[in-house]
Design a protein that fits this description.
This protein is mainly alpha-helical and about 220 residues long. The protein has helices spanning about 35-50, 55-65, 70-80, 95-105, 110-120, 120-135, 145-150, 165-175, 180-185, 200-210; strands at about 5, 15, 155, 160-165.
Length: about 220
């Protein structure tokens, strides 16, 4: 809660809250530990008898690093959104977990949507962009900006500076390039059949010209 914001009637943003409030320090609620994540999910087993494949918990920790919303959202996706698994006699497999994770990412749920909004902030964007490009140094980004992004839970500073968990590592680059992704032309490539299989006769026919650099047909695939 280092930099909470207040919106005026005209949607202007006042950073830092009221000038009459005293903020002595930044406050951040810690993530769950690995054992707390496991015990939380096993409460479901204790109450319903439905079991989890033990291999799930290693992946769950890497995917969330204990981020409370992600831990609970994945559990809800598995045990309620998956209609098949509402039958508590059906054990939950690792394949079920992978599908739940993908569904959650694709849903762009509220938490992930808010994450996207944060990435629009210049100070957040600069830190994340530098981190993804491998250009994080004391000279490239201010220490206060790094601490702000740590406070938001988007990155970790120990044991090394990195994006906090595997889901964020997948979602953040997607969101930063989303506009580019949706504006890429989707024209059918010349070397594909209408069924989107490689058209081998056409490819082999044009190969000599492509190899010699005399054919510009590849330009249409860019």
């Amino acid at each position: 809660m280092r930099d909470y914001r207040i919106h005026t009637q005209h949607q202007e943003i006042i950073t830092g809250g009221s000038a009459f409030n005293i903020k002595a320090e930044s406050l951040r609620l810690d993530n769950l530990t690995e054992s707390e994540v496991r015990n939380l999910w096993l409460q479901h087993t204790g109450e319903t008898g439905q079991t989890f494949d033990d291999n799930i918990f290693v992946q769950l920790w890497e995917d969330t690093h204990g981020q409370p919303w992600l831990v609970n959202a994945l559990a809800y996706e598995l045990t309620w959104h998956n209609k098949h698994l509402r039958n508590r006699n059906v054990p939950i497999t690792l394949e079920d977990y992978w599908q739940a994770k993908e569904n959650l990412i694709q849903s762009r749920a509220t938490h992930l949507d808010q994450l996207t909004d944060k990435l629009k902030e210049a100070r957040v964007h600069s830190v994340i962009s530098a981190l993804l490009s491998g250009k994080v140094t004391g000279d490239t980004i201010p220490t206060d900006d790094v601490q702000y992004v740590v406070d938001l839970g988007l990155i970790e500073s120990r044991p090394q500076l990195r994006i906090s968990n595997r889901i964020y590592q997948e979602v953040i680059p997607r969101e930063l390039t989303w506009t580019r992704q949706i504006t890429i032309a989707h024209e059918q490539s010349w070397y594909l059949t209408p069924q989107r299989h490689i058209d081998m006769p056409k490819t082999l026919e044009r190969f000599p010209a492509i190899f010699s650099g005399k054919c510009r047909c590849l330009d249409r695939t860019l």
